[in-house]
C-alpha cells in the first residue's frame, strides 16, 4: 500500500471526471481483469509496469485501472501509473492503445541451490510458523519482560482448515497489572502491527527485529530500558498469517498474496479480503470488487482477523474521542499505534479516508514529522494524490473510534533492488537502521501524544 504527497492531490482529482469518457474506449469491453477467477495468471509471470495514456491523465488512468481490477501500486507518477501485472495483461493494455513500459521484476534473484533455514524463505524472511516459534522462544526466555497472547483467529482456523491464532506480544518490565487486555493498566501503550498485507515482506521482518531489539537491550541501553520501564510495547508480528502461508509457499519466488485466505470464488491472488479495507470505521463497499486487491469484504469487520485485532485494540486503549469524525481526542489521551506496510517511503497519519484535516492534526503531524527525522520518509495524509483513499484502514479506525494516534509507515523505496514487495533480504539492515529510531519516537510519544490538543 502506497500513497502520494499532498501537493499533487487537487490537480489530479480535478481531472478524474474529464478523463472517464476518454478511458472507456481505450479500456473497453472484453478487457481481461487481473485477479479474477477466469483471468488469473501464474504469479511467476508478474512484474512491475508503468502505464500511460496518449489522452488521459495519470489520475484518471489510475482510477479506471483500479476500478477494472488492476493491481495499481500508487508509486511514483514520473513514469506513469505503476501496476503489478502479468506480461499477458500488459500486452492486452497495449492493444487498447495504452503505453506499457516494463519497470522491473517482482522477484529478486535467489540461487536455485538455496535451502531455506527452518522457518524462513526467500533468503531469510520468516514464515508465519517461524514467527510463532520466535514469539514463544522470546516469551519463554524473558518471563519478566514478555507476555505472549492470542488475540484472534485467522479465517482458515475459523473453518477448521488449519490456519493460525493471531499472536501479540506485550514487552515491558512486568509489574502487577501489566499486559492485561484491559484499559486498567497504568502504563501507556504502543502497538506495532505488521504484515496485514501478506506480500509486504519487510514489515513482518521489522517486527521480528523490533522484538529482539527490545528484549536484548533492556538493562544495557538507557533509552530502551526507560521505555520498557514506563510503557507497554505490544507487537502483532503477523496480522494475516494465512496470507503469509500462501506467500511463503514458494521459498525462492514468493506468491503475491495481499489479502487473507477467505474463499470467495476467485483464483490465484484474487482470493480473500483486504484486511486494511475491512475495519468498521468508514468501511466502503465500493473499494473493490470481489477479486480485486482492495476488496473490503461483504460487510464491515466481516473477517475474523479484523474482529480479533479490533477487539484487542479496543480492550487495551481508553476511548478519549467523541464519536463525531471531527471532534478531537482529549489531551489526556495516552497510547500510539503503528501499522507497517510497503513500499514508498512514507509516514502516513490520519485521516486516510478523507482529505479533510483530522481534529488533532497539528499534534498528529508533529509526531509523524519526528518519525521522518530518522527515516527521512515523506509525511502525508489523505488520498495520497491519486484519489487513493483508504476507508476501512486500521490506522483510521484506532484514531476515529478510540482517539489514539494511528500511523502507517510505508517501508522501502520505489526503485532499486530494495524496492517492491519482495526486496532482497540484505535490504533489511538498511530498513531497520532507518526505522528503528522512528519506532522509538512513536513509542516514546505514547505517554502524551496530544500536548496542544490541536
From TrEMBL:
Any one Gene Ontology molecular-function term assigned to this protein's record: zinc ion binding
Top-level taxon: Bacteria
Enzyme Commission number(s) from the entry: 3.4.17.18
Cofactors named for this entry: Zn(2+)
Keyword Metal-binding (UniProt): yes
Ranges for domain Peptidase M14: 124-446
Catalytic residues in the record: 410
GO BP terms, alphabetized: proteolysis
Top-rank EC class of the record's enzyme: hydrolase
Compositionally biased intervals (Polar residues): 249-258
Task performed by this protein: Carboxypeptidase that possesses the specificities of both mammalian Cpase A and B. Thus shows broad substrate specificity, being able to cleave Cbz-Gly-Leu, Cbz-Gly-Val, Cbz-Gly-Phe, Cbz-Gly-Lys and Bz-Gly-Arg in vitro.
PANTHER family, per database record: PROTEASE FAMILY M14 CARBOXYPEPTIDASE A,B, SLL0236 PROTEIN
Family membership: Belongs to the peptidase M14 family.
Protein's name in the database: Zinc carboxypeptidase
